[in-house]
Design brief:
Layout: E1 3-11, E2 15-24, E3 27-37, E4 41-42, E5 45-46, H1 49-67, E6 73-77, E7 84-93, H2 103-116, E8 125-136, E9 141-142, H3 144-147, E10 154-165, H4 166-179, E11 182-188, H5 189-197, H6 200-205, E12 207-212, E13 217-223, E14 226-233, H7 237-248, H8 252-262, E15 277-282, E16 287-292, H9 293-318, E17 328-331, H10 340-348, E18 352-354, H11 376-385, E19 438-439, E20 461-462, H12 478-498
Parallel strand pairs: 1-6, 6-11, 12-17, 15-19, 17-18
Antiparallel strand pairs: 1-2, 2-3, 4-5, 7-10, 8-9, 8-10, 11-20, 12-13, 13-14, 15-16
Helix pairs in contact: 1-4, 5-11, 7-8, 7-9, 9-10
C-alpha cells in the first residue's frame, strides 16, 4: 500500500507548529511535531506575510533536514477570528425518484448552497466552509446518514455557512509563496479540532469545545454529532502575558516565562504555593524585585474570569446552554494554565475537562509533544487532510532516509557515504520554562541567537474578553454588552502600545 505524507502548519499568534504525518491506507502515523515562536500573526490572522514567512521557512528547513524529505506543499488552518456564521439552504429535483440517494447528490446539494449564497461583499468576504445541519426528502427530515440510501422525488438541505475575510486567505498564500511552499489545503480548524479531541458521546449529547490560543479564544458547540454554533473573541493567553507585563513592568519574554512556570488561577486555592515569592534579578543594574505568587495569580485570574464570562455569554447566545449534557471541553495552549478548569466550573456550573488529542485516532511513537492540548489543531488538520486519498505533501522523488540506497558490491572497502542512514527522529528539546532564577532581559546585552530546537513554549472545513463579581447568568445581553465593549476598547489600547 502506497505511503503518503501530510505536512500541516498551525499558525498561532504566539507559536507556529509544523507537523508531518505518514499515511498508509487508514493508518495515520505522526512522525514529526515541533513548535517555534511565530511572527507577523495577530489574532490568529497573518497581517505581515513577510515576517510570518521567516519562521515558517526555518521550520520547514529543519523538518526536511531531520526527516530527509522535501516538503512541497502544506495544509494550513484558516483564521478563527472575524468569522461569522449564516444559514443557507438548497434543493434539487431528482430525475430518477426510484434511484437511491447517494453521496454525490449530498455533495452537489452542498455545492449549490455555497455557490448561491449571497455574500454581502464578494471582494472582501469568502466562504470558509459549510456544515450540513439537516436534510429532508418527501417523507422525513434527518441527518446525512438518514437520507443516503433512501428514495425521493426531491432532496433539500440546510447548512451553516461560515464567512471570513478574503484578505486573510490571500495573506496566507503570499506567506507560503515567500516560504517556498504551496498551499495543499486550507482548513477551518474548529471542526477539525472537534474530531481530534471530542468523544462520540460528547458530540452527540451536547458539548462546548473552547479552544484557548495565544490571541483568540473560540467556541464551537456540538449537538447530535454536528457542529451547530461557532463564535470567537480576540483574547487568549497573550492577553494574560500582557497584563503581567504591564502590571509588573517586565518585558514580554520574562512575563511569558513567569506565566508558564508559576501562573495559576484562583489564588485562594494555591495552598502553600501562595506564600512563595519570586526574586527577579536584573543582572545589568545588579538590582532585584519581588513578585508574590499569590499576587501573580490575582492578575491572571482577573483576565481569565473575563474570558470565561465572555465565552459563557456566547453559550447563552447560541441557544444551547441548557443542552450541553457533557459540559465544556477546554483545549489549546491556554488549557495548561493551572486551575483554569476549576475557574470555569465555578463560573458556569458545567463539568469541565481538558481535551487532548485522542490517541486511538493516530499513532505517534517517538514524537513528543503531539499528545498535548496545544497540538490539538495540528492533529485535527492531519486527520482531516488524511481523508483525501490524492494528497501528498512531499516530493515523489525523495523518501525519508529509513533505508540506505542500494549499491553494487564495492571492489574495495570505502568509507560510508556522507548522506548515509541517519536518525529519522531527532531529540525533542522542548524544555519547560521552570527555573530557579529568572533574569530580566531588557538591555542585558547577553541575548543569543535562538536555536530552533530549544524554545520557550508559550501559552474541518476546507477552504472553507473587569467584572470580578458578575457571573454570566446575570449578565446576559444588556449588562454584558458593556463588558464586551470595554474589553474591545482595551484590545485597541494594547494594539496602540505595541505600535
Amino acid at each position: 500500500m502506497q505511503e503518503r505524507y501530510i505536512a500541516t502548519v498551525d499558525l498561532g499568534t504566539s507559536k507556529l507548529a509544523l507537523c508531518v504525518a505518514k499515511v498508509t491506507g487508514e493508518n495515520v502515523q505522526i512522525i514529526y511535531y515541533k513548535e517555534r515562536p511565530s511572527n507577523g500573526v495577530r489574532y490568529n490572522c497573518v497581517f505581515n506575510p513577510k515576517k510570518a514567512a521567516a519562521p515558517l521557512r526555518a521550520a520547514i528547513a529543519e523538518a526536511e533536514d531531520e526527516l530527509q524529505i522535501k516538503i512541497l506543499q502544506v495544509v494550513v488552518g484558516l483564521p478563527r477570528y472575524n468569522v461569522h456564521q449564516e444559514t443557507a439552504s438548497a434543493r434539487i429535483d431528482r430525475s430518477d425518484p426510484s434511484s437511491l440517494i447517494g453521496e454525490d447528490e449530498i455533495s452537489a446539494l452542498k455545492g449549490i448552497a455555497l455557490d448561491t449564497y449571497p455574500l454581502t461583499d464578494r471582494d472582501a468576504e469568502l466562504i470558509y466552509g459549510a456544515v450540513p445541519q439537516s436534510f429532508s426528502t418527501d417523507d422525513f427530515i434527518g441527518s446525512e446518514d438518514d437520507v443516503v440510501g433512501s428514495t425521493s422525488d426531491s432532496l433539500s438541505g440546510n447548512f451553516k455557512i461560515f464567512v471570513g475575510a478574503k484578505k486573510a486567505v490571500r495573506n496566507i498564500d503570499i506567506m507560503l509563496n515567500d516560504a517556498g511552499v504551496a498551499l495543499a489545503q486550507a482548513i477551518f480548524t474548529p471542526s477539525a479540532v472537534g474530531e481530534a479531541v471530542l468523544k462520540d458521546d460528547e458530540m452527540t449529547n451536547g458539548v462546548a469545545l473552547v479552544e484557548m490560543g495565544g490571541g483568540v479564544t473560540s467556541l464551537a458547540i456540538y449537538q447530535g454529532g454536528i457542529m451547530r454554533y461557532f463564535a470567537s473573541i480576540p483574547f487568549g493567553g497573550k492577553s494574560i502575558t500582557t497584563d503581567i507585563r504591564l502590571e509588573c513592568a517586565f518585558d514580554d519574554t520574562l512575563a511569558e516565562n513567569i506565566k508558564l512556570a508559576f501562573g495559576a488561577c484562583l489564588p485562594d486555592k494555591l495552598q502553600t504555593m501562595g506564600d512563595k515569592v519570586l526574586q527577579i534579578n536584573d543582572e545589568e543594574n545588579g538590582t532585584y524585585e519581588h513578585l508574590g505568587i499569590k499576587y501573580l495569580s490575582e492578575i491572571i485570574t482577573s483576565r481569565c474570569r473575563e474570558i470565561v464570562q465572555a465565552i459563557l455569554y456566547l453559550i447563552q447566545e447560541s441557544g444551547f446552554a441548557d443542552r450541553l449534557r457533557c459540559g465544556i471541553v477546554l483545549t489549546g495552549g491556554g488549557a495548561n494554565l493551572a486551575n483554569l478548569t476549576n475557574l470555569i466550573k465555578e463560573e458556569s456550573g458545567y463539568n469541565v475537562r481538558v481535551g487532548f488529542p485522542l490517541a486511538r485516532k493516530f499513532s505517534s511513537d517517538g514524537c513528543p509533544g503531539i499528545g498535548e492540548a496545544e497540538a490539538s489543531a495540528s492533529v485535527g488538520m492531519v486527520l482531516e487532510a488524511s481523508t483525501d486519498p490524492f494528497l501528498n505533501c512531499i516530493s515523489d522523488a525523495m523518501q525519508p532516509a529509513t533505508e540506505a540506497p542500494k549499491q553494487e558490491p564495492p571492489v574495495q572497502e570505502v568509507a560510508p557515504d556522507s548522506n548515509g542512514q541517519g536518525n529519522l527522529f531527532g531529540e525533542d528539546d522542548f524544555d519547560k520554562v521552570v527555573t530557579k532564577k529568572i533574569v530580566k532581559t531588557p538591555g542585558s546585552g547577553k541575548k543569543s541567537k535562538p536555536k530552533p530546537e530549544k524554545e520557550d513554549k508559550p501559552g474541518g472545513f476546507k477552504i472553507f474578553w473587569t467584572t470580578m463579581g458578575q457571573k454570566v447568568g446575570s449578565a446576559l445581553k444588556g449588562g454584558f454588552d458593556g463588558v464586551l465593549g470595554g474589553l474591545y476598547d482595551e484590545m485597541g489600547n494594547n494594539e496602540n502600545e505595541e505600535k
